[in-house]
Write the structure tokens for this entry.
Amino acid sequence: MNRFDQIRDLVMSLEGDFHKFYEKGNQAAGTRVRKGMQELKNLAQEIRVEVQDIKNNES
């Protein structure tokens, strides 16, 4: 569950920047959102590879 916690923490850390960007038009917050979403994408890819490796090794 550590990986799930990492994803949840990352998404929750972006909540304020999402609000600042979409509600207030803060461009710097948009940059932080984009950076955070890239980190989320990379983390998701790492998890996909890890799950596939575990799945293949158990078969």
